[in-house]
Inverse folding.
């Protein structure tokens, strides 16, 4: 059906179809990610964000939207210093989120054998 | 003939035990690095070997370290280990005297009373009879305490005890049976043949008055042989493997073999198998307070041994080091945990290609505040004020931009990633030409001190630096009548062994109240970056409990020397928390 207007193809997110693997994995091991309200405090204080274009708030958005294509390059910028976690008004354990994302991406790209330590 | 075969279970068990244990020791030795092997070869013919022998006696037999934890617990272990050891040694001498020679079938000394029933009169016969019976009572007292401990562990100073595996139960049952069965064997035999001292003969007679003992003798001696055999066969597969492994560990450690932080080698196994699962580390662990009960060191060691360690357990640890201080075996649990973390995360280290060395400035002293200090600006301002006051030519390295020190990454096992940050920072520090590097964060301090290669640069924690200023008379501190408790940060205290400088400094500014749990026994604030799994709510519980304990000393304020500790405690709304720099900066202000 044509209503005479469209959304931009590249920005459309089909919530019924997108890849939920990563977000489900994260919520299983770090449920606190669910309470994030995207205030951006984490990004404001970020040590890595001070040195390079890096936005951890956007990362949680990317994860929740299933936009995992550019995630690897982004997440690798984090220095794991922990300021975001201390500043977070919702108590999201962001260091664990970062580590879990790195781990899951690594498993999915086949770098890490699915051994007993991946549970 | 019964006497020809009844000792077979014991013999088979013993041979099996020796083959497995020696096999493992050889495997562990072969798996060591070349340098470690050379260390062993050099150490073998040095004083260190004698030291190890003494340490083996002190820890393996007398259990000196467990005595320090709790006297009852120490006695229990000592009576079992030392008592059993003496039973074997004295029994062997007794048999040698009887045979008049050092060479006799091995089983004769273990089952001496079974073989020697006729009246004899070899030298020292009466003495040996008494000695062996008293030793058996000594061991039995330990066994009785062990029974009692299962039900009432609190009497032994232990609130919690380790959960057991199925195999451990078999080993434990066999161990519990060995000495009571031996007691029955010897008293029954004495009841029939009167071959013991008057003590056992008397007990034997009492048993004999109930019924005929003769038919019981063979089954009892067979049972004794079987429980010994079962225990020896079970030993390599249960926690009782710690008995030989601990001795092995003592020798290896004294010869200078250590766990290399970047990789797992067989020394890991030598340490893992030395864990007796006594559970002393469980009580030392503060995570209990937050209801975390599966990640204590004993369980991590157990999981490594059983090859079922999960990240959820491995990373749920503050690495505060309290369990390591408490461990009677002296296992280097923190290093062990970090090597495991390196192993599981090595596939996903970052490269940080974006890092550039920023502008540097020539200075005498470099001040690196660190990420955590930027979250606690009052500490940063106090530090700058002190530096200005002392008239230092300093360069504030991370005033605007600088990478993290790298320690948070290392605590998460990301050593390769951390190296990139370390390289960048090293370059900047060396370019500045400074002779001293000042940090006020113990997390940064530890990594700068231990992992950075900074030739000619002295790394100083601000407690050391400010104390120096005061001693040189470059800073006048105005004393006040405030009472304070000092909280030892884990990374500074147990991590870097700096206990006295902060106290000496604080004593110039206020009155310090001593606490029961401080220095090596200090509590962790709960904020440690080493734990990536603990939730914020659980961290708050730990901080709250620690503050409760501080409050019992009714201080005016809590002083610490770590920005992260301060930040963590600040969430608890009970006592004011200050960093040492703030206290000193405040005391300087009043005078001016």
């Amino acid at each position: 059906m044509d209503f005479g207007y469209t959304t931009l193809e590249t920005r459309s997110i089909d919530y019924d179809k997108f890849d939920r693997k990563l977000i489900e994995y994260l919520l299983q091991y770090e449920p606190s990610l669910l309470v994030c309200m995207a205030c951006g405090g984490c990004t404001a204080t970020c040590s890595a964000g001070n040195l390079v274009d890096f936005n951890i708030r956007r990362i949680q958005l990317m994860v929740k939207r299933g936009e995992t294509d550019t995630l690897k390059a982004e997440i690798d910028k984090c220095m794991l210093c922990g300021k975001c976690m201390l500043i977070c008004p919702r108590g999201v354990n962001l260091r664990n989120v970062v580590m879990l994302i790195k781990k899951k991406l690594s498993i999915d790209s086949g770098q890490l054998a699915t051994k007993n330590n991946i549970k | 003939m019964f006497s020809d075969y009844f000792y077979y279970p014991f013999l088979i068990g013993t041979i099996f035990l020796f083959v497995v244990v020696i096999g493992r020791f050889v495997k562990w030795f072969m798996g060591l690095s070349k340098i470690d092997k050379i260390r062993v070869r050099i150490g073998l013919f040095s004083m260190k070997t004698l030291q190890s022998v003494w340490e083996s006696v002190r820890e393996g037999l007398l259990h000196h370290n467990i005595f320090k934890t709790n006297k009852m617990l120490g006695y229990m272990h000592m009576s079992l280990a030392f008592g059993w050891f003496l039973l074997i040694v004295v029994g062997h001498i007794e048999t040698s005297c009887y045979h008049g020679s050092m060479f006799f079938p091995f089983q004769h000394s273990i089952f001496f009373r079974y073989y020697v029933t006729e009246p004899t009169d070899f030298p020292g016969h009466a003495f040996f009879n008494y000695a062996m019976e008293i030793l058996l009572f000594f061991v039995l007292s330990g066994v009785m305490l062990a029974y009692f401990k299962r039900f009432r562990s609190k009497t032994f100073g232990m609130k919690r005890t380790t959960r057991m595996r199925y195999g451990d139960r078999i080993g434990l049952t066999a161990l519990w049976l060995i000495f009571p069965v031996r007691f029955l064997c010897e008293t029954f035999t004495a009841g029939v043949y009167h071959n013991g001292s008057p003590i056992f003969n008397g007990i034997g007679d009492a048993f004999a008055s109930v019924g005929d003992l003769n038919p019981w003798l063979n089954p009892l001696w067979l049972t004794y042989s079987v429980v010994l055999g079962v225990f020896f066969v079970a030993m390599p597969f249960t926690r009782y493997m710690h008995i030989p492994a601990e001795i092995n560990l003592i020798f290896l450690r004294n010869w200078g073999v250590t766990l290399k932080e970047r990789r797992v080698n067989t020394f890991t196994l030598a340490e893992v198998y030395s864990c007796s699962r006594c559970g002393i580390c469980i009580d030392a662990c503060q995570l209990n307070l937050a209801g975390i009960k599966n990640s204590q060191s004993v369980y991590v060691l157990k999981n490594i041994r059983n090859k079922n360690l999960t990240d959820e357990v491995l990373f749920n640890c503050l690495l505060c080091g309290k369990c390591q201080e408490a461990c009677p075996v002296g296992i280097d649990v923190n290093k062990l945990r970090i090597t495991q973390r390196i192993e599981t995360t090595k596939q996903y280290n970052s490269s940080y290609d974006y890092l550039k060395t920023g502008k540097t400035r020539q200075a005498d002293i470099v001040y690196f505040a660190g990420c955590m200090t930027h979250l606690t600006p009052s500490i940063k301002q106090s530090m700058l004020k002190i530096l200005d006051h002392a008239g230092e030519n300093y360069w504030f390295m991370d005033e605007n931009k600088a990478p993290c020190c790298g320690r948070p990454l290392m605590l998460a096992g990301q050593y390769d990633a951390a190296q990139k940050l370390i390289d960048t920072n090293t370059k900047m520090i060396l370019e500045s030409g400074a002779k001293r590097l000042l940090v006020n964060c113990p997390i940064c301090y530890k990594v700068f001190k231990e992992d950075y290669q900074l030739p000619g640069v002295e790394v100083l924690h601000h407690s050391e630096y400010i104390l120096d200023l005061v001693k040189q008379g470059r800073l006048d501190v105005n004393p006040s009548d405030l009472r304070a408790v000092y909280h030892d940060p884990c990374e500074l205290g147990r991590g870097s062994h700096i206990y006295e400088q902060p106290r000496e400094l604080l004593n110039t500014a206020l009155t310090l109240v001593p606490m029961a749990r401080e220095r090596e026994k200090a509590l962790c604030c709960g904020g440690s970056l080493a734990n990536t799994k603990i939730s914020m709510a659980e961290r708050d519980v730990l901080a709250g409990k620690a503050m409760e304990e501080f409050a019992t000393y009714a201080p005016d304020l809590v002083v610490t020397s770590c920005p992260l500790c301060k930040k963590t405690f600040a969430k608890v709304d009970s006592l004011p928390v200050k960093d040492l720099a703030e206290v000193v900066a405040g005391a300087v202000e009043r005078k001016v």
